[in-house]
Amino acid sequence: MIRIMFVCTGNICRSPMAELVMKQLVRKEGLDWVISSAANTGDEVGNPVYPPVRALLEARGISCKGKYSVQLRREDYPNYDYFIGMDARNRRDMLRIFGGDPENKVHLLLDYTDHPHEIADPWYTRDFRKAEAEIDEGCAALLRTLRTQETA
Hints:
The chain is α/β, with parallel strands linked by helices. Helices cover 42% and strands 12% of the residues. It has a single domain (3-151), classed as Response regulator (Rossmann fold). Its EC number is 3.1.3.48.
């Protein structure tokens, strides 16, 4: 069983979107993976998915019910196989929180695509559709990569 935690700054936009999109992809494949998400800051802990993100996901039939921001903790490191951030700051913060990455578990989502780059925070850019498209692409690429590794 593969265990993935998606991480972004507040866990109200990018990482919950990635979590819920990946859960849908994994469910369609009939896989029994653990997928979750967290924030690398405590600023939004306890808040629900941000309304523009919720609207995009609900338009696709993906419910955000019960998803509230949680903060990443050092104790999470042994419980997951992959920690997938959205941008370089997320990666740096994860490494700081974990005190390093001795098992090479920390990565960026779009590193699994043919054109790696950061996913800009739509909280600031207001371009939620672009973030959605990049998260869709990244989740599909991550799923392909991990499925290939599973069968190797």
